[in-house]
Amino acid sequence: MEYYLAQANIAKFREKLDHPIMKEFVDFLEPVNRFAEESKGFVWRLKDEEGRSASYIESPFNDEMMAVNISVWEDLESFKNFVYGSVHHYFLRNKKKWFDLKGPSQFALWWMPKGTLPTLDLAKEKLNLLTNHGPSSAAFTLRDFYDFQGNKFSPTPR
Questions:
Q1: Are 74 and 43 within 8 A, CB to CB?
Q2: Mind listing the pLDDT tens digit for each residue in 61-74?
Q3: Which residue among 78, 86, 110, 130 is least packed, with the fewest CB closer than 10 Å?
Q4: Fold of the 3-153 domain
Q5: Greatest CA span in the chain, whole angstroms?
Q6: Distances (CA, A) of 120 to 41, 50, 85, 88, 148
Q7: pTM
Q8: Quick one: pLDDT at residue 58?
Q9: Could you give the CA distance from residue 151 to residue 156 in angstroms, rounded to a whole number?
């Protein structure tokens, strides 16, 4: 069986998306997401019903200010190349402009059988699993990474 790498992350917006401090973030949502879709190894990302960023989807965390992002990648290297080796890295480095860093900010990775896609409920389950029980082969981080066979290893730093 072949596997793809799924990721989910949540973070609390500092303000609503139509607030002036959110303008730069909102202006670049679609271009950055389009770049992700065109990136080597990209498989899928969560979108709203109109095809826009998942930032516009109602959060399963009962908080309208909570941003949810879910995507699927062919492998770790493709995911890391997009996150750290593209324009996305600018937004990651500057996240304090748009997100409340005191609020919950979570990130989880897990392997999914090729041909399946994550749901919001599954992402919430993986994030909660990681928060409540720490990294495991079921939900892990880049720092505590597991291969698709469940073996822990340290990926090459970027």
A1: yes
A2: 788 888 889 999 99
A3: 86
A4: Alpha-Beta Plaits (3.30.70)
A5: 47
A6: 22, 17, 27, 22, 21
A7: 0.90
A8: 74
A9: 15
**Whose structure tokens read 């997100």?**
99
pLDDT of amino acid 153: 84
Cβ-contact 106, 10 below 8 angstroms: yes
Rg of the Cα atoms in the chain: 15
Amino acid at 103: G
Kindly report, residue by residue over 40-58, the tens digit of the pLDDT.
999 999 987 777 777 777 7
HEC readout, the chain: CCEEEEEEEEEEECCCCCCHHHHHHHHHHHHHHHHHHHCCCEEEECECCCCCEHHHCCCCCCCCCEEEEEEEECCHHHHHHHHHHCCHHHHHHCHHHCECCCCCEEEEEEEEECCCCCCHHHHHHHHHHHHHHCCECCEECCCCEECCCCCEECCCCC
